[in-house]
């Protein structure tokens, strides 16, 4: 028989290993901040393994999502029960309810904790997912036997309709499992759009059946730059690099995202940023007699030829490729790039110059617009609407085209004034590939300085548009992550966290409720522990580095 001390010590260890009753996380820690929270003076709902998730049939996939997330986060494994005529046997429930009467806004939800039930009401997938994400924040980040969730009423909906994050998988490619993880990050932060940058000078990252050399040739570069592209001497690693996502992989990601309320916008970048394309098919270039390589360096604008020539083969290529890719992606929007189209290669090309004359185009800017409108017509045949970077406004353009502005307020105001809907994605402060600190020992980035407070204090709607009553043209904003200097998934996380969390509050919460001091409190108290639970890297010195740092 064990000595008394050892028996007591063993008993303590056993007791410590048993999940116990736990009080819910603080309602005051919910991020992004909800529109309205009404706390009840007393009362709670206890959720344990005997509780059931009861769901209306429209939310069956979201019920499974909640079940999976709750089990991973807390160890609680709640059975599912469709909301049918048969009454659920459990005494406590989490109810997912379709409500098209009291829920009067897109992506809106209510979350009510009262009596014996937790009830989430929504009229669309997004609203239900966001209600679930808020509920998950009320559960602890540890294994438990039971959780007491205090009575509360939450009404919530987003400030902006478009809330996006971009990821460049061309300069560096990331595994499908990480793409799914990235989508999980977006869903948690109540963002609703994943902008997937799939083609550029340095590679073609989507399977193509119509033009197979885009994969056999265009998806691979012979080596990759080491260090910054402005370094001298220039150095390369000598290692072949590349790959692409198969159509089956892409469909898997699309289905995964749809359950989580995320729309995916693919980007095929034309008529510039096309070096990988002309490496595979030189006849589409302004120098069809030249053998091109897939780019091995960054910063191609006006440095290396990367534009498409306006010829019959090129337009046939664009129609076929864009329609093939459009068939994969269900969301109504498609991004065609249009940025940094170097005009010098067209100016030096007799075929391009003759095309401009034959089609009564004003100049090379007119040619750029011609490309955009041709591709827009190909996509319209597939029921798609077009998004392009703000440079496509250099010419006269149909107002149906949505403008993604990576410039400053000036470019956003110009687009809105011309009657275009605008997504604000300014380099300052929404390029998350820019530095978060001015520490010379920080991880290499392209340039720039976008600390956390700059992101949090960003206002998507310029004051000038409010004064002109044109603010309705700004439909939201997006942060971009270009991957020239981001070679692995840990670096992706390091660059986006905690800036993605700040962006979520900018785009979701009401402007008058924002408070950076309280945001940092919630970040430290509730969100960083969640990064840790995800196993995600993050930039830890966000309180030290601010816009005031010189």
Outline the secondary-structure elements.
Elements: H1 4-17, E1 21-23, E2 36-48, E3 52-55, H2 60-74, E4 80-82, E5 93-98, E6 109-114, E7 117-122, H3 125-138, E8 146-156, E9 162-168, H4 176-188, E10 193-197, E11 199-200, E12 203-204, H5 213-216, E13 220-221, E14 225-226, E15 235-236, E16 241-242, H6 247-259, E17 263-270, H7 275-280, H8 312-326, E18 333-337, H9 344-347, H10 350-358, H11 364-380, E19 385-389, E20 402-405, H12 409-417, E21 422-424, H13 427-430, H14 452-456, H15 463-467, E22 474-479, H16 489-496, H17 499-508, H18 516-534
Parallel strand pairs: 1-8, 3-4, 3-5, 5-7, 9-10, 9-22, 10-17, 17-18, 18-19, 19-20, 20-21, 21-22
Antiparallel strand pairs: 2-8, 6-7, 6-8, 11-12, 13-16, 14-15
What do you see in this structure?
The protein is of the alpha/beta class and 550 residues long. It has 2 domains: 36-156, Chitobiase/beta-hexosaminidase domain 2-like (Chitobiase, domain 2); 162-534, TIM Barrel (Alpha-Beta Barrel). The chain is built from 18 helices and 22 strands. It has helices spanning 4-17, 60-74, 125-138, 176-188, 213-216, 247-259, 275-280, 312-326, 344-347, 350-358, 364-380, 409-417, 427-430, 452-456, 463-467, 489-496, 499-508, 516-534; strands at residues 21-23, 36-48, 52-55, 80-82, 93-98, 109-114, 117-122, 146-156, 162-168, 193-197, 199-200, 203-204, 220-221, 225-226, 235-236, 241-242, 263-270, 333-337, 385-389, 402-405, 422-424, 474-479. 45% of the residues are buried. The model is unreliable at 1-6 and 8-18 (pLDDT under 50).
